[in-house]
Amino acid sequence: MMDAQVSFLDQLFAKGVLHDSGVDGLYARSGEFEDVIARFEKFALTYGQDEISEAMVFPPGMTMQDFETSGYMKNFPQLAGTVHAFCGNDHDHMGLLQCMAAGDDWSKDQKPTQVALTPAACYPLYPILSRRGALPAEGAYVALQSYCFRHEPSKDPARMQMFRQREYVRVGSAEQTMDFRETWKQRGSDMMERLQLPHNVDVANDPFFGRAGKIMASGQREQELKFEMLVPITSEEKPTACMSFNYHMDNFGKAWNIRQADGTPAHTACVGFGLERLALALFRHHGFDTSKWPEGVRATLWG
Q1: How many CB atoms lie under 10 A from the CB of residue 82?
Q2: Keywords in UniProt for this one (predicted)?
Q3: pLDDT given for residue 25 in this prediction
Q4: CA distance 88 to 108
Q5: Whole-angstrom Cα distance, residue 155 to residue 7?
């Protein structure tokens, strides 16, 4: 599998679709790659566009306070990233420069800022909704996009450390959020059919950390809280999750104090599109020359 990952990554570099930075999972993208992503986003937004209540785009960082509230460090410390910065004086700066000149570790005086790298696109939305007070009866239905970071360097081009998620998030009652997720599972399959990508939907779990994490992952699967749209990119045997369909119950509603109109904690669900992964899937299955992609796929993305 590793050979297949490296082989595809090498092809992407050779064709100029991606450009190596020297750090695994951190790549420059070509104009053509970005064009495919832009066209996919436009295509994705044709689904459910009459249902959304608003749209937002988030920066790649979120407040440390909201990051802590999310519980991400409790569940996925191995993936998290935080922003540190130099906060010293002139004397400290001289010491930093001397360390750099000597090839020593100069980062020891870096201090944590109030910013964490966003690990999931929907996280910054929840505190915004909380500050507004109780939700209307129809709840909230938000289209959003964000750059995300997860510290898992890999030769697999589909496992980038910095990547974008396009999401729809539904906040409201258990019935509203569950209906939303089931609807999007069907829509996701329809989207893959129109893009002529091999796919299947399967129950999944998040990569919870440690011994307790194994129990949490098992519970998540048993309750069928997470499904993934799997598409072969670097492996037929282990296809890549290119979409996810998640029901969080009222966990985030309680964490951020998001209330339904009747005052009870809101339930949340989201559907996430891995934009880089979907672009890679299209290049993998249809070739590196987008002008030669199947007519139906070009009609879907280029109109």
Answers
A1: 15
A2: Ligase
A3: 97
A4: 11
A5: 9
Between the CA atoms of 222, 224, 228 and 232, what dihedral angle is there, to the nearest 10 degrees? 40
Mean pLDDT (the chain, rounded): 95
Give the SS3 label for residue 181: helix
User: What pLDDT, on the 0 to 100 scale, is given for residue 207?
Assistant: 84
Q: Sign of the CA dihedral 62, 47, 196, 19? A: negative
Rounded CA gap, 38 and 16, in Å?
18
- Look at residues 116, 159, 148, 145 and name the one whose alpha carbon lies nearest to residue 270: 145
Cβ-in-10-Å burial (0-12, 13-18, 19+) of 262 comes to: exposed
Is domain 2-81+119-302 annotated with CATH 3.30.930.10? yes
How far is it, in rounded angstroms, from Cα 254 to Cα 265? 6
Is residue 133 exposed (0-12), middle (13-18) or buried (19+ Cβ within 10 Å)?
A: exposed
286 compared with 224, residue with greater pLDDT: 286
CB distance 267 to 141 below 8 Å: no
- Report the DSSP beta bridge partners of residue 18: 29
Extents of the domains making up the chain: 2-81+119-302, 86-116
Task: Tell me which of 17-21, 90-94, 97-101, 203-207 is least confident.
Answer: 203-207
End-to-end, the C-alpha distance of the chain in Å comes to 36
In eight-state DSSP terms, residue 259 is B
The C-alpha atoms of residue 75 and residue 68 are separated, in whole angstroms, by: 11
134-144 pLDDT per residue, tens: 999 999 999 99
Cα distances (Å, whole numbers) of residue 190 to 42, 45, 184, 200, 233: 15, 14, 9, 11, 19
Distance of CA 80 to the CA centre of its chain: 13
- For the segment 73-105, what is each residue's pLDDT rounded down to a tens digit? 999 999 999 999 999 999 999 999 999 999 999
Determine the residue type at 16: G
